[in-house]
Amino acid sequence: MDHAVHSFIAKHHLIRSNQTLLVAVSGGPDSMALLHFLCSMRKSSSLRLVVLSVDHQLRGEESGEDLCFVEEVCQQWDIEFQGVSVDVKSYKKETGKGTQEAARTLRYQWFEKMMYAYEADALVMGHHGDDQAETVMMQLLRSARPEAVQGMPAVRPFACGQIIRPFLTVSKKQITDYLEEKNVKFRLDPSNTETDYTRNAFRQHVLPFMNKKNPQFHKHMQAWSERVREERSYINEQAQKVLETVHFSQNVEKFVQFSKRTFKTFPLALQRTAFHLILNYLYVKQNEDISYLHEEMFMNLLNDEKPNVSLDFPEGLKITRAYDEITFAFKEREEEKGYKYELSIEGSVELPDGSNITASWCEPDETENVFTYVCDSHHVKPPLVVRTRLDGDRINIRGMNGSKKVKDIFIDQKVPARLRNTWPIITDQTGKILWVIGLKKGGERTSLSSGKWLRLHYKNKADT
């Protein structure tokens, strides 16, 4: 076992000379083997070892005795010791978390505090190859997403340093043999044999079958974990190219927007990865309620032929697609109310979004553009009205026979659904629609008409 662990440490650059290592020790066989192994390296590598031991107060006096046992061993082996008791039951009541999650949260909070207190380089954990195999199988049971099925990393950032796991390359049996060979004492936690928790059920029933079929199963799982992490790291790196085309809000209220057309130009693997990176940004970290089914829902939204579709995700996240625009947002923008303003000639009105519309008289040869409207004043009855759409609105479009529904104009012009209720429309006093601003124009423009002509101009807030 010694050679395997030393090779693993060297391969992943886990331990270097003159480091301060905090060692998580429960008193069980795995952590005691780890502590003994690190002690064998202490002099040759000039390591400072500090043992951290936590009493979760879940097994009464017995768990307190585990803490005392670890402290006594540290005294015998001349190792610095720090122990703590945490109230898991009270924390469960306060937070509503399960026993295992509550215990882990309190444990890691204390570990982090100790890392900073000692300015340590690493926190060393005793997870071994069988633990890794259990972890991968449990992750696969919960999720089909590759990024969620990677096992435990040999090294990862933590507090002011790292968490390292030197034993991931060895099996539980190798550790047991090591303890016997070195005559290392340890304590057993009876709860590890219970099958109420999913991990213990895998440990008691699934893993023995796998090991029987392949005694090197733990090595296969570790090699698989390392390869998956390397490949996911590369894919994540490539997915940054997708994210360069995505707009991430800088506001307090987070939202994300991007073009469906542009997004779909990237390979499918990068689309999926970018989708989860976007969720990581919005949720801060990936929400556990997100599964591959949500991913498929999103991919279906990308390919849906309907111009406007939406999805509801956990914690109030809503994904909407309005033609080419896709938006991720936790809170829908409050639906803006419709409006109606009177617009006199030689006057102006300001819309709720800060845009401005002016009306004035002009000469017949006045030019038009998308934001300027000119018509024969003989066919217009002032004062004018600037309003939002009404059910049944129709406009007689210049150059066309008959009328067309404003609703159909919005659809044809691919106006996002969220903008339609506040889109400005100008009518005269009789209700005749003159202009669906920026989209279609009505009213007469006959060059032979004499007298004054009406000129309307729309100025967006961004241009003011």
UniProtKB/TrEMBL annotation:
Q: Which domain of life is it from?
A: Bacteria
Give residues annotated as binding ATP.
26-31
| Reactions the enzyme catalyzes | cytidine(34) in tRNA(Ile2) + L-lysine + ATP = lysidine(34) in tRNA(Ile2) + AMP + diphosphate + H(+)
Q: Give all residue intervals belonging to the Lysidine-tRNA(Ile) synthetase C-terminal domain.
A: 384-456
- Could you tell me the EC number(s) of this protein? 6.3.4.19
Gene Ontology biological process terms in this record: tRNA modification
- Broad class of where this protein is predominantly found: cytoplasm
Going by the record, the broad EC class of this enzyme is ligase
Keywords in alphabetical order? ATP-binding, Cytoplasm, Ligase, Nucleotide-binding, tRNA processing
Q: Where located?
A: Cytoplasm
Task: Please give the Pfam families that the UniProt record associates with this protein.
Answer: ATP_bind_3 (PF01171), TilS_C (PF11734)
Per UniProt, what is one GO molecular function of this protein? tRNA(Ile)-lysidine synthase activity
Q: Can you list the GO cellular component terms from the UniProt entry?
A: cytoplasm
Q: Quote the function comment for this protein.
A: Ligates lysine onto the cytidine present at position 34 of the AUA codon-specific tRNA(Ile) that contains the anticodon CAU, in an ATP-dependent manner. Cytidine is converted to lysidine, thus changing the amino acid specificity of the tRNA from methionine to isoleucine.
Q: What is known of its domains?
A: The N-terminal region contains the highly conserved SGGXDS motif, predicted to be a P-loop motif involved in ATP binding.
Q: Which family does it belong to?
A: Belongs to the tRNA(Ile)-lysidine synthase family.
* Protein name, entry field: tRNA(Ile)-lysidine synthase
What phylogenetic lineage does the species belong to?
A: Bacteria, Bacillati, Bacillota, Bacilli, Bacillales
